[in-house]
Amino acid sequence: MKTEGHPNYVAVKVTCSCGNVFDTRSTLGKPAYHVEVCSECHPFWTGKQKVLDTAGRIERFKQKYGKRA
Fold first, then answer.
1. Which whole-number Å values give the CA distances from 13 to 26, 32, 63, in the listed order?
2. Which positions are tagged coiled coil (predicted)?
3. What are the CA-CA distances from residue 24 to residues 6, 9, 44, 65, 66 (Å)?
4. Which residues have CB under 8 Å from 22's CB, separation 6+?
5. Annotated binding site, which residues?
6. Exposure class string for 32-52: b at 16+ Cβ within 10 A, else e
7. Quick check: 2 pLDDT over 60?
8. Numbered residues of the known binding site for Zn(2+)
9. In whole angstroms, how large is the CA radius of gyration of the chain?
10. Spatial distance between the Cα atoms of 58 and 45, rounded to a whole number of angstroms
């Protein structure tokens, strides 16, 4: 296998907005990354759904379509 054609695969530190910090590997070359969601805070993995109701959109939807059979 040729060694010149492959990118460097180095260890990096990833920091989530929830405060979780973990180590992984990457070929991009940055020593650290910041992400908004990770497996510790993502609703799919935690089972906790965060509903962000902006300007009452959910209530307007329920009023408009909720009474139909």
1. 10, 5, 46
2. none
3. 18, 10, 21, 46, 46
4. 13, 14, 38
5. 16, 18, 38, 41
6. eeeeeebeebeeeeeeeeeee
7. yes
8. 16, 18, 38, 41
9. 21
10. 24
Whole-prediction pTM = 0.54
- First and final C-alpha spacing in the chain: 65
- List strand residue ranges (DSSP E) for 1-69, in order: 10-16, 21-26, 32-35
Angle at 48 between CA 17 and CA 66, to 5 degrees: 120
Helices (H) and strands (E) in the chain, counts: 2, 3
